[in-house]
Amino acid sequence: MPVSIERVPRLNRHRNTGPRLPMLRAAIALAILAAFSLSSCAAKNDDTATATASFTAMDTAMTVTVHAHDRNEADEALSSCTEIVRGLDEALSPTEDGSWIARLNDADEPLPAPDDVEKLIEEALGMAEATGGAFDPTIYPLTSAWGFTSGNYRTPSDAEIETALTRVGFRSVDVDAASGAVTLDNEAQLDLGGIAKGYAADRITAELRDRNATGALVDLGGNVTVLGSKPDETPWTVGIADPHNPEALAGTLQLSEATVSTSGDYQRYFVDSEGIRRHHLIDPETGYPAESGLSSVSVVATSGAQADALSTALFVLGVDRAVDLWRATQNDEALAFEAVFIACDGSVLVTEGLSTSFAPSAAYDGRVETVPR
């Protein structure tokens, strides 16, 4: 996943191979100890101040850093940002009793959605349509069958997968435009985890712009959003983890006003009783972990929700179909994006729009090819 390399020291968040790893447990423990602790300090520019919060939400460690004109502005903006994330987290957990999503998944009738959730569902359905269902917010019956929602990993039988597939399909979700009520048909169930962090980043970005923040670095569990520039007016540097060695970087991107979201087979997986490695990126068409020849996909877009959903979709599609989708969106300002693909064989493809901003690490030097428009 993408990691900011602007701050030292930082939590080791770019490796997530399963909830039982000691290193991950230690990282989460550090995040809990720091939960919503706010710190402010004078930046190099005397006209700005910086506030930072580290916390856990959406089952991951997060950090938000805000630059503003003075300390009060920075602290108030930061507090508002954490409230946004907490509110979405409380509504969107499919496994948390009482959350809005959990209640919808158990409901037999339409359930009115909070404004934020309604907008998020509409965005999720739009991205499902745009990707031909490679991203599908109704994937929950499948991710649950594989144990990725609970951490109790298992390989379901072919019969279980076939049954779960009958309940997967984004067209089973209906949002009433007048009332905001959501209806699920065909025993569908929603899981917005593949787009929620990106949407939260968009909400935070809008809030910070309204508050005239001078810059921000929003790291929501590896979905990294940068706003404005650093206090020294240089671009932000965002690292892309090496999926074959997640403790190292495959390269870095120089960015401003963008979100980077990565989906990879190294982030969450288990090895089954037959020695087969099963990762969490399920293909909604087959019901099995996607076998696309890719180890990771990093998407850069101005919309966090779009980047989040696309990183999953492109991984499922594989390079050829992903590049076709990239080319098809180049003249659509609302959908245009750029991407970095790292294949299982260690080769790297970078779309043309990132050719000058992506710098490979030494391990990947000479292995990078640019995809022309």
Automatic annotation (TrEMBL):
Organism this protein belongs to: Enteroscipio rubneri
Keyword Flavoprotein attached: yes
| Protein's recorded name | FAD:protein FMN transferase
- Record has Transmembrane as a keyword: no
- Cofactors, names only: Mg(2+); Mn(2+)
**InterPro entries in the record, alphabetically?**
ApbE, ApbE-like_sf
Give the matching Pfam families: ApbE
Q: Which SUPFAM superfamilies match?
A: ApbE-like
Question: Which keywords describe this protein according to UniProt?
Answer: FAD, Flavoprotein, Magnesium, Metal-binding, Signal, Transferase
What this protein catalyses is: L-threonyl-[protein] + FAD = FMN-L-threonyl-[protein] + AMP + H(+)
Question: Hey, what's the signal peptide range on this chain?
Answer: 1-42
Q: Which family does it belong to?
A: Belongs to the ApbE family.
Gene Ontology molecular-function annotations: metal ion binding; transferase activity
Query: What stretches pass through the bilayer?
Result: none
Superkingdom is: Bacteria
Cofactor binding summary note: Magnesium. Can also use manganese.
Annotated Mg(2+) binding sites: 194, 308, 312
